[in-house]
Design goal:
- This protein is of the alpha/beta class and about 750 residues long.
- The longest helix has about 40 residues, at about 50-90.
- It is globular.
């Protein structure tokens, strides 16, 4: 009957409003399914009437009614499509699922295509399996040596000179040739025991165990295991070399038991994380200088020896045989075992800052591999002292993470096309997926926007996002989106084009949206390293500020925000200050411009391990209340003139309206290379009983000028060149007992 066909059309139209058929359960039988078949509904036959005219009139009314219904449904469908497009484009606040792992409602997830698991790995990711024979051990060592820094042997070096090699020189040295390379590498180790492995971890390389806990991947029966030695031993303070420029490398989620102890003579952006060192841990080599680092969520069975490290942060480390040495400042947060006692450093030695009762810890996400070869993304949950007892925030902790299948994780692979990178990665974020970025450099045509709670962006092997040229940030996290994790990435400035009202490399929240965050589901920035200049031949790269935090309840864990003090040389270009380094150009005024490292407007923001260096105005501006900082290392710019001091710029500024702020282990250094600059004070804050700062100091590193006081015009300062490398201290922000150490 025609009436039945009309009804069938109505039902078919209604079922296709969404444009897609509803997904089936994987176990549902789809045999005989035909996407184009029509749905037929059988109705009871109508009774005959005495008047055929009445029947025809009745049928006409039904047809008109059915046409009206069709039109109504079609209009409704069009409105739904338009609303959906607006919803996707506008940065409006959306209903959120704040439960752990909730990113989208289930109806949206059902329409999203799964990612392959195991993922298809690009050439920048290398996965290794435990060797079983001596031949396999030798072959794997040979393969791993290909990923180490280039070396120069003693014979090669001295063959180019008229000198004879001194007997105390090493047989070879690793070099800094890859200091500004674009190559990025992740070395992944499947669970098992790796015997006899000794390899150096090079620039932009991450060594990552794929087990659920560090001891699932163990390096044993070896001399050094994965390690970092001092570099350039024949040219920099020979025979010791240097660790000052040994940046951008990491080891995570392994256990190691080398006979010589684990050596890690590195500096900024070179963390050891989620490791079990079953020997001594040597954070230095000989008399080579090094400028600080981070060890987090770890167990050290032997002794930690800082050597000459200028400063260092240990967070949530179980110290079985204590820690010794160090130059200026050591900070221990949530550590257990033989933790050193608090020490102001006023009389001798480094200052030691200890927080035995942190209120919060959030560990960095990591990846694991199952026996089947499938990958998982593990997301550690936030731990709070006030709700679960101090054991959750103290010491190392391996386990208890939320486990997410890689079917919901997009593995990013870099393209040289910024539009491709943006479209592919943003599509995955809009689908509610997590992002794991494979090693490489990703130029971006627009900001990656995080719109859903609990999403993860995790970089492997120093994956680098290069900022859009219009000044928008590499990453924009929308306000009122809690529980987000951004970790393991580099953010790099570009040469900006056009009129740029403001610019940054990462923005969290919006200046016109009040967002205190979620104290029960805080967000994380972990191992995030910003860079303005260095790797680019163009010295006009710039941004206004590296990181801006408008939202609250964010936990920062090891951030280095660096305006490059040295940059890559053009082919054939000679170094402008060869006595400082023959390998790089030293940045001068007008190059690699950035005003501030970080601006914090959000409430209850925590920073554990914050390094900011060389920006041309205030290094750090903190406007939000209830902030907490443990370990801050800062170098003022080398290339400014006295106008920098005349404008009262400082290394650490707390805004005038802040009432509560806590900070410990704060070091700010001067090295005014080009002009004689006299900065009035290193730290500026309003006078308030709620502002509590401890173990504050300045250091005159080299060259001209000085910092005349430590905090708010109080505290000692260097007076002559003989004070070079000497910390000038205040035990607290009153500077009531200040002396030079």
């Amino acid at each position: 009957m025609n009436d039945d066909l009309d009804s069938t059309d109505d039902i078919q139209l209604s079922s296709l409003i969404s444009g897609k058929r509803a997904p089936r359960h994987p176990d549902e039988d789809t045999a005989g399914d035909d996407a184009n078949r029509r749905i037929t509904i059988h109705r009871p036959l109508e009774l005959e009437t005495s008047s055929s005219l009445d029947i025809k009139l009745e049928k006409g009314r039904r047809r008109r009614f059915n046409r009206f219904v069709k039109l109504f449904v079609a209009l409704a469908a069009a409105l739904l499509i338009i609303a959906s497009l607006i919803w996707r484009v506008l940065p409006v606040n959306r209903e959120q699922d704040n439960t752990a792992g909730g990113t989208m409602d289930s109806s949206k997830k059902d329409t999203v295509e799964d990612e392959p698991n195991p993922p298809i790995l690009p050439d920048s990711i290398h996965i290794f399996y435990p060797p079983k024979t001596q031949e396999e051990i030798e072959a794997l060592n040979a393969e791993l040596s290909k990923f180490s820094d280039p070396i120069v042997t003693k014979e090669e070096f001295f063959s180019k000179t008229t000198l004879s090699p001194p007997p105390n020189y090493s047989d070879f040295t690793y070099t800094s040739d890859l200091h500004f390379t674009s190559k990025r590498t992740a070395l992944l180790f499947a669970p098992g025991v790796y015997e006899g492995m000794d390899f150096e971890v090079a620039y932009y390389t991450s060594v990552l165990g794929l087990g659920a806990k560090p001891t699932d991947v163990t390096f044993t029966n070896c001399d050094k295991g994965p390690h970092v030695d001092a570099i350039n031993k024949f040219t920099t303070r020979p025979p010791w070399g240097s660790g000052l420029d040994t940046f951008w490398r990491s080891v995570e989620n392994i256990a190691t038991n080398p006979r010589e102890g684990m050596r890690w003579a590195a500096s900024q952006a070179a963390p050891l994380r989620r490791v079990h060192v079953q020997s001594d841990l040597l954070l230095f080599e000989g008399d080579a200088w090094a400028s600080g680092g981070v060890l987090a969520n770890a167990i050290v069975d032997g002794q930690v020896n800082f050597g000459g490290q200028q400063q260092y942060l240990l967070r949530n480390v179980q110290l079985k045989q204590g820690a010794v040495n160090g130059a200026w400042s050591l900070v221990f947060v949530g550590c257990t075992g033989e933790t050193p006692l608090e020490n102001s450093g006023l009389k001798s030695g480094p200052s030691i800052s200890v927080d035995n009762s942190p209120k919060l810890r959030i560990e960095k996400p990591f990846i694991t591999m199952k026996e089947s070869g499938e990958f998982e993304l593990r997301v550690p949950l936030a731990a709070f002292s006030q709700s679960h007892g101090h054991n959750d925030v103290l010491g190392s902790h391996f386990g208890g993470e939320e486990v997410r299948s890689f079917t919901g994780v997009k593995l990013g692979v870099p393209s040289t096309d910024g539009a491709d990178n943006y479209l592919i990665l943003q599509k995955a974020l809009d689908e509610g997926k997590d992002l794991v970025l494979s090693p490489g450099v990703y130029p971006l045509a627009a900001s990656l926007e995080v719109k859903y709670p609990n999403q993860v962006i995790l970089g492997l092997g120093y994956a680098t996002l290069k900022a859009p040229v219009n000044g928008s940030p590499c990453i924009l996290v929308h306000p009122k989106v809690p529980g987000v994790r951004i970790a393991g990435i580099m953010l790099e400035a570009s040469v900006l084009t056009g009129t740029i009202p403001s610019s940054s490399l990462l923005q969290w929240g919006m200046p016109d949206v009040d967002d205190v965050g979620d104290s029960k589901n805080p967000s994380l920035l972990s191992d995030v390293f910003c860079r303005v200049g260095g790797a680019s031949y163009d010295r006009h790269v710039s941004t206004e500020v590296m990181i801006q935090l408008y939202s609250g309840n964010i936990y920062g864990d090891n951030l280095w925000l660096w305006r490059a003090d040295h940059v890559k040389l053009h082919p054939g270009e000679e170094a402008n200050f060869p006595h400082i380094s023959p390998y790089y150009r030293q940045t001068v005024m007008g190059e690699c411009q950035v005003r501030n490292g970080m601006k914090v407007y959000g409430q209850a923001v925590t920073m554990v391990g914050l390094f900011i260096e060389h920006t041309t105005e205030d290094q750090l501006i903190w406007e939000g209340d209830n902030g907490y900082v443990a370990f801050y290392q800062c170098e003022l710019p080398y290339d400014v003139d006295q106008s920098y001091a005349d404008k009262s710029f400082v290394g650490y500024r707390i805004g005038p309206d802040v009432k509560i702020h806590t900070a410990r282990g704060i070091g700010i250094y001067s090295n005014f290379r080009d002009f004689d600059v006299n900065v009035a004070t290193a730290i500026s804050h309003p006078e308030s009983d709620g502002i509590v700062m401890s173990n504050l100091f300045t250091v005159y590193l080299d060259n001209q000028g000085k910092i005349s006081s430590v905090v708010n015009g109080k505290g000692p300062s260097a007076v002559s060149e003989s004070d070079r490398g000497r910390p000038f201290r205040c035990s607290d922000n009153t500077c009531s007992d200040d002396i030079g150490s």
